[in-house]
Every structure is written in C-alpha cells, then in structure tokens.
Amino acid sequence: MSLAEILPDVQSLSRVDKLRLIQLLAQELAEVEDDVGLVGGQSYPVWSPDQAFAAADTLLQALSADRGPGK
C-alpha cells in the first residue's frame, strides 16, 4: 500500500488517532534504528566542545578580526 492510498484515510482520522499513529510510526522507526548496532545500556563516546580550547581561540580571533581594530 502506498502513501497516496492511505493519505485520505489518515487525513480523516481524529486528532487523537493521528497522534497515536505518529507515536506508533516513531516507535517502529526507533526499533528499526536500534538494529544499526547500538547496544542498550552501553556507553558510546560523544564529542563535546567542552574542552575545545583551540576551537574557542579560533572563533575569538575571527570575531576580533570581524570587529576590526578599536571596535
């Protein structure tokens, strides 16, 4: 069944049923994405700019150059 076939039925749903449909589709997509290889309860590294001092310095220099001298 294609989206074009079910769209009229979806549009005729009540607000509550549309929200339930959104929730169901989101859960289904999340379950499919879980199969990507992430394991529940395990830690994964995530980059954070918290200790990115070189990047902060570069941004500060760019801002200073953009303002020009004496501004």
Polypeptide structure, described:
The chain has helices spanning 3-11, 15-34, 53-67. By secondary structure, it is mostly helical. The radius of gyration is 24 Å and the shape is elongated. The model has no long low-confidence stretch (mean pLDDT 87).
Jot down its keywords.
single chain, 62% helix, 0% strand, 71 residues, mainly alpha
Approximately how much helix is present in the residues? 55-70%
- In angstroms, what separates the terminal alpha carbons? 63 Å
Q: What general outline do the C-alpha atoms trace? A: elongated
Strand content: under 5%
Largest sheet: none
Number of helices: 3
Low-confidence stretches at least 5 residues in length (pLDDT < 50)?
A: none
Could you give the topology of this structure?
Blueprint: H1 3-11, H2 15-34, H3 53-67
Brief digest:
This protein is an all-alpha fold and 71 residues long. The protein is built from three helices and no strands. Helix content is 62%, strand content 0%.
